[in-house]
Amino acid sequence: MPEQKIVITIDDDGAITAKTAGFKGESCLEALEDLLELNGVVGEVKKTDEYHQLQAVKKAHIQTIKGRS
Amino acid sequence: MSAVIKTTTPFAIETVLIKALAVLGVEPLKVDASNITSLKHNGGVQLGDIFTNRKDYNGIQHFRFEQGRWILRHDSDEMNGHITASTMASREYLSVQKFLSLLSKEYDIVYQEYLQELAEQERLRLEEQRKKRVEATRLQAIEKAKSQGYSVKETHNIKGQIQLVLTRMV
Lengths: 69, 170
Description:
Number of strands of chain B: 6
Distance between the termini of chain A: 32 Å
Order of helices and strands of chain A: EEHH
Structural class of chain A: alpha+beta
Radius of gyration of chain B: 29 Å
Structural class of chain B: alpha+beta
Largest interface: A-B, 20 and 22 residues
Oligomer: heterodimer
């Protein structure tokens, strides 16, 4: 079973930095949104290599499927 | 005739005034229900007045809060009654004018300390608020994480900040 991991850092002012691992694509942002109710308070989103790799894989997969049809 | 006058610092804050009076050694005493009957003054005594150990013809000189500031109530003619020419000549006697001038200086010093105390209190209040905010964020994150099936491990990073490591198997 794959593991999903989120590391939340709460700074001295109560601001949160969260880093995810083991999520597929946009689901990491959705998980953070569910967890931290981030609506309207996110100042910066930095997507990790893993995120881009998974997106690329997804895109390639979609192209493959399209190619087949 | 022309004249230049300078008023004293408005004695607006009771605690500051009492401290300043104490520094000058005039033994400030707040009038309350327990001592009002023992304090006499020709102009009357009210609850809340601040008595000193300075005396004149009308009785003990004291401060009364009027129109947003503490005003010294005293006999305007210092040559009358208890205050004689010899007393005036005494090095120990301070005229009202001199007394108020010294009080004004002392009040300013105590007022600066008072402002620093206020600043410190405000700093502590903000610090307390900050701690509560961090704690509320921490508790909310833990509660939410557990409700979503994450196991939570709490640590601190090298900066001493709270770090929550949430994991779950999917």
